C-alpha cells in the first residue's frame, strides 16, 4: 500500500475557492441584462483569490511530493483551460461587457483557469512516487 | 472504539485486496491513452454544431442540444450515482480495476461534452425566451437552476474530474495500488451521487420553467 503522506488541504481550499467564483458569477448573471451592484461580487472574488493564494503557499512548502508529475498535469491542464477561458472571455467581449464588470469577470475566469488544473495536478501527483 | 475497529478491519480488507490484485512485474498491464483520442473528432463535430446553433439563434437546434444534452447528463449522473456506484462498491477490487480501466476514459470525454451542450444551448434559450431577464416572472427558477449547476460544477471540477484522472494515472502503473483505486473510486461515486441528487432538483426546476 502507498504510505499516506501529510499534505495540505489543497482539494478543500481549491473547492472553496471555486465555490466563491461560482457564487460571484451566479450573482452577476442573476441581474442580467442589468448590471449588478459589484460589492458582493468583489467580496466573492477577493475570497476566492485569498484561498487560491493560501493554497499555492501551502503547496509550495510541501517537500515530499511528485512535483514532476504535478507540473506535467498542470501544464496540460492550464493549456486546456486557457482555451476554455479564452472562449469565455471572447463571449464577454462579444456581448459588449466592459469596465469594472469585465475586470471582475476576467479575474474570476483567471481564478477558474488556475484552480481546475491545480486540483487535477494535485490529485494525480499525491498518489505518485515523490521526487528524490 | 468503533472507529478504531473500523480502521483495523478496513486496513485488513485493503491488505487482502492488495494481495488479490497484485500483478507479477513480468506481466505489465496493456493500457491505451488516458483519453480515447479517436472519439475527439465526434466531440468536435458536436461542439461545432452547438456553436452554429448559438450563432444562428436556431430555436429547434438549441432546444435539441439542450434537451438531448440535459437528458444524457441527467440519466448518466443518476445511473452512475445510484446504479453503477452501489454495484461497484460490492465488486472485488480486481473487478473494479478492470471496470474502471474501461469506464473512466469514456466518462472523461462524454461528460464535458454533454454538459457543454446543455449549458451552452440552455443559456441561449433562456436569453431568447426572456427568462434571463429580471422582469420575467420565472426568472427566479433560472437563478435557482444556476445555483444547482454551480454546485454540480464545483463538485464535478474539484472532486469528480481530478479523481477520474488520478485513477487513470494509477491504473497505468505496472502494479496499481488497490487502496488508492478504491479511495478514488469511492470519491468518484459519492461525487456522482451528489450530482445525481442535484439532478433531481433540476427535474423540478426545468418542469416548472417549461409548464
Write up this protein.
The complex is a heterodimer of chains A (132) and B (211). Chain A has 132 residues and is an all-alpha fold. Chain A has helices at residues 10-29, 39-60, 67-94, 99-125. The two termini of chain A are 19 Å apart. Chain B is mainly α and 211 residues long. Chain B contains 6 helices and no strands. In chain B, helix 4 packs parallel to helix 6 (178-210). Residues 1-28 of chain B have low confidence and may be disordered. The A-B interface holds A 1-2, 11, 14-15, 18-19, 22-23, 25-26, 29-34, 69, 73, 115-116, 119-120, 122-124, 126-128 and B 14-15, 18, 132-134, 139, 143, 146-147, 150-151, 153-154, 157-159, 161-163, 165-166, 169-170, 177, 179-180, 184.
* Rg of chain B, Å, rounded: 21 Å
User: How large, in whole angstroms, is the Cα Rg of chain A?
Assistant: 17 Å
Give the helix proportion of chain B (percent range). over 70%
- What is the straight-line distance between the termini of chain A? 19 Å
Low-confidence stretches of chain B: 1-28
Q: What oligomeric state best describes the polypeptide chains here?
A: heterodimer
Beta-strand content bin of chain B: under 5%
Termini distance of chain B?
53 Å
Largest interface: A-B, 29 and 28 residues
Count of separate DSSP helical elements of chain A: 4
One letter per element, helices H and strands E, the order of chain B comes to HHHHHH
Briefly summarize what is shown.
Chain A is mainly alpha-helical. Chain A has helices at residues 10-29, 39-60, 67-94, 99-125.
Main attributes?
heterodimer; A: 4 helices; elongated; B: 211 residues; 0% strand
